[in-house]
Amino acid sequence: MKRLGFAFIILSFLLGCASNPPPDITDGPDTAAPGKTPLEQGLESMEAGLKAKAGGYDEEARNAFVQASRHFRAVDEQSRVIMHRTLAELGKVVEISGFVYAPREAFEALTLYLKMQNAYLDCEPKVLAVLEQQFNEKVLKVQEITVQEKQKRLEELGKEIAQKREEIQKQSQTDIFEVYPTIYVVKKSDTLPSIAARHEIYNDSYMWPLIYKANRDQIKDPKLVYVGQDLRIPRDITIEEIIEARREAGAPEPEKIPKEAYVPRRKK
C-alpha cells in the first residue's frame, strides 16, 4: 500500500501538470498487456507514461497515466475484498470457540491474518494471495479439530450421564426418561433438516424449526449453518409446538407425528 500510495502521488502530480484537465479514469481503452496482474499492468502503464512525457508526447503520457491509475485502483479493490473476506472467516473461528478447542491452529491462523495485513499495506497482492490460501487451509483445520474436540467432550458427558442413569436405576424402580443430547455440534454438510432427522435428535426432518427458533442468536438464515457451531436442541416441548414446527416446515400432514419421532414422555 505504501508503494501504491506513492505511485498515486506521482500520478496525481503528473496528471496535474498537464495543460488540459485529465480524462475520466473510467473512460478510454485498456491497452495493457493481457495475462498480467493489475499491479504489473499499472507499473508498465506508468513507465510508458514517463517515457512519453520525457519525449514531449503529453497526450499519450496522460492516457498512460490514466491507465496506470485504473490498474492501481483495481489492485487495491481486490486486496480489500480479500481482507474483508478473511476477517469474516476469523470471526467465525472466534464464534465457534476455535481458540479454546484448537488454540495452536487458531493462533497460527491469526498470525497469518496479521501477515496478510502487512502484505496489504505493502501492496504485495501475490504475497497476499498465497497467505490467503494458507489462512483458509488453517481455518479448515481449526474447524475440523474443534468439531472433534467438542464431539469428544459431548461423548464424555454422555458417558457420565449414562453412569448416573445406571446408578439411579439401581436405586429406584421408577420410570427413567430416555437421555437425549441437548447440544449438537454442526458437522460438514449438515443442514437444519438433516440434523433434525438424526435418530438422537428428533428423528423427523420436519421438526427443524424447533432448532432454528432455539438458536436465533447465532442462526440468521435457516438455510445456512457452519461447521463447529453449538446448537441447542429443545427437549421441553409440547405436542402443539411439534405440530406447529412441522406445519412451518411444510409437512404434508403436520398433525400426524411419525411414531419414531421424538416426543417427550411427559408431553404425550
Automatic annotation (TrEMBL):
<feature type="domain" description="LysM">
    <location>
        <begin position="182"/>
        <end position="233"/>
    </location>
</feature>
<feature type="coiled-coil region">
    <location>
        <begin position="140"/>
        <end position="174"/>
    </location>
</feature>
<dbReference type="InterPro" id="IPR052196">
    <property type="entry name" value="Bact_Kbp"/>
</dbReference>
<dbReference type="InterPro" id="IPR018392">
    <property type="entry name" value="LysM"/>
</dbReference>
<dbReference type="InterPro" id="IPR036779">
    <property type="entry name" value="LysM_dom_sf"/>
</dbReference>
<dbReference type="Pfam" id="PF01476">
    <property type="entry name" value="LysM"/>
</dbReference>
<feature type="region of interest" description="Disordered">
    <location>
        <begin position="248"/>
        <end position="268"/>
    </location>
</feature>
<protein>
    <submittedName>
        <fullName>LysM domain/BON superfamily protein</fullName>
    </submittedName>
</protein>
<keyword id="KW-0175">Coiled coil</keyword>
